[in-house]
Design goal:
Elements: E1 9-14, E2 17-28, E3 32-43, E4 47-58, H1 67-86, E5 98-103, E6 109-116, E7 123-126, H2 127-133, E8 136-144, E9 147-160, E10 163-172, E11 179-181, H3 183-190, H4 196-202, H5 206-217, E12 221-225, H6 232-244, E13 248-251, H7 263-273, E14 276-280, H8 287-297, E15 301-306, E16 325-330, H9 336-361
Parallel strand pairs: 6-11, 7-10, 12-13, 12-14, 14-15, 15-16
Antiparallel strand pairs: 1-2, 2-3, 3-4, 5-6, 5-9, 7-11, 8-9, 9-10
Helix pairs in contact: 6-9, 7-8
């Protein structure tokens, strides 16, 4: 690319609203070009409303030859979507997207975003992506408006997480995101994985599904707290060690907020669905408030301390006279990982013993058939 075919920063005025449009990403790949458009405007609800819009241009697709014209249309569409959302003409939240990989018979692989739509059996894919992947064509007889028609379908594999699902894909010009996952994908994804119970839960009230998910989370999820910024790498190290032990580490700023909750409320919500909490107590930060909350709420908490020193003298004795909070000391950073292993082992065992004790204590209320999360 010798020159930029667009203005990096551009302004629109739509429906009485000023919009700032910025191209914040433009990456060239051998077969495609990936861009991100960031649109923003003043918002009565948020102060500033910001939306990102991803656009992929495939180099060998003839329809993409007039890049500048096509990109301007996409950019304007992104600005219009932002304004309609701010004015209440579109839902506040976009459909939640899933990151998937698409793979064709030639071995070509593309990363994209997808949303589910169970009104279709086949999955739907943008025609440009079908061309870029060189998908193998197949045919199927489908009933369309009361008539049986021969519809071109394409064979592809959709990779999500550790699963690779072979499925049929129909071409579509539905817009963004470029992939829609149909019912066949989910049927194959859930088959034989012990996840059939999830289908039953879909029919249950919201509160029951929330409780069932919380119970499952408490088997292996762990809340990680500490100082962000320059110390964030330490939190990621804790997450990595936990993963090696079969736990899923959660760091609060990686996860969305509930509008009606304050940050302390958010912390309590996540701690309540986690098996235990691990806190890196190296330097004073907001985690000191979180540690106090753990003390008040009796959350099982392991505190990591360099040479046994607390980040603030005000909490130096927070592990004293309680059994559900314990301190794990390390002399140098070389011993940090070992302290994490010890902390996780202690906390996991403490939770298991607490659960057994509570089951016995509340025996008249509880029983094997009344427990969630197994």
């Amino acid at each position: 690319m010798n020159e930029i075919e667009y203005e990096i920063t551009k302004k629109y005025f739509l429906s009485g609203v000023d919009i700032l449009s910025e191209v914040v990403k433009d990456e060239a790949h051998p077969e495609f070009r990936a861009l991100v458009i960031r649109s923003s405007c003043h918002s009565h609800r948020w102060g500033t409303r910001t939306q990102d819009y991803s656009y992929t241009s495939y180099k060998h697709v003839p329809a993409q030859n007039d890049f500048a014209k096509i990109f301007e249309g996409i950019r304007l569409q992104a600005a219009e979507t932002l304004v309609k959302t701010e004015l209440g003409e579109l839902p506040e939240r976009s459909p939640r997207v899933l990151g998937v990989h698409l793979k064709g018979s030639t071995g070509k692989l593309l990363n994209t975003f997808a949303v589910p739509d169970l009104s279709f059996s086949q999955s739907l894919l943008d025609e440009d992506m079908i061309s870029a992947l060189e998908l193998e064509k197949a045919h199927s007889n489908l009933e369309v408006e009361g008539q049986v028609r021969m519809v071109p379908l394409f064979k592809a594999k959709i990779i999500f997480g550790s699963s690779e699902i072979e499925t049929f894909i129909a071409p579509s010009d539905h817009g963004s995101p470029p992939c829609i996952l149909g019912g066949e994908f989910f049927q194959k994804y859930l088959r034989g994985k012990g996840k059939e119970d999830l289908i039953q839960e879909m029919l249950l009230p919201d509160h029951y599904r929330a409780l069932a998910n919380a119970a499952r989370c408490q088997k292996q999820h762990v809340l990680i707290a500490g100082k962000y910024g320059n110390n964030r790498a330490r939190l990621e190290s804790i997450k990595k060690v936990l993963q090696s032990e079969g736990f899923v580490g959660l760091i609060l700023d990686e996860h969305p907020d509930i509008e009606e909750q304050s940050l302390p409320n958010k912390m309590v919500t996540y701690a309540s669905i986690c098996r235990f909490v691990i806190i890196d107590d190296l330097v004073a930060s907001g985690h000191n408030v979180e540690l106090e909350i753990c003390h008040q709420r009796k959350f099982v908490t392991a505190v990591l301390r360099a040479k046994g020193a607390a980040s603030t003298a005000m909490q130096d004795d927070i592990t004293d006279e309680v059994t559900f909070i314990s301190s794990f000391d390390y002399d140098t950073d070389d011993n940090f990982e070992s302290a994490i292993f010890q902390a996780a082992k202690w906390a996991d065992e403490f939770v298991a013993k607490r659960a057994a004790r509570l089951n016995r204590k509340y025996g008249s209320w509880r029983g094997p058939n009344r427990m969630m999360g197994d």
